[in-house]
């Protein structure tokens, strides 16, 4: 199975390929969105905090 080989290859996951599952891309987008939202909320909470 080629799908088993793409599970550990990070370069294949970064490149858009027909072998990349759709659900994995959705999980990556969701993870990036959560990471950026958390980083922005942390940044604003630190910078806009009254001192």
Commentary on this structure:
The longest helix has 26 residues, at 22-47. This protein has one domain. The chain has 51 residues and is mostly helical. It has helices spanning 2-5, 10-14, 22-47. The protein is rod-shaped. It contains 3 helices and no strands. The mean pLDDT is 72. 0% of the residues are buried.
Strands, count? 0
Query: How far is the first residue's CA from the last residue's CA?
Result: 58 Å
Question: Helical stretch count?
Answer: 3
Please trace the helix and strand order, writing H or E for each element: HHH
Number of domains: 1
Low-confidence stretches: none
Strand content: under 5%
The biggest sheet, with number of strands, parallel, antiparallel or mixed sense and barrel status, is: none
Estimated helix fraction: 55-70%
Q: Average pLDDT, to the nearest integer?
A: 72
Q: From the alpha-carbon coordinates, what is the Rg to the nearest angstrom?
A: 17 Å
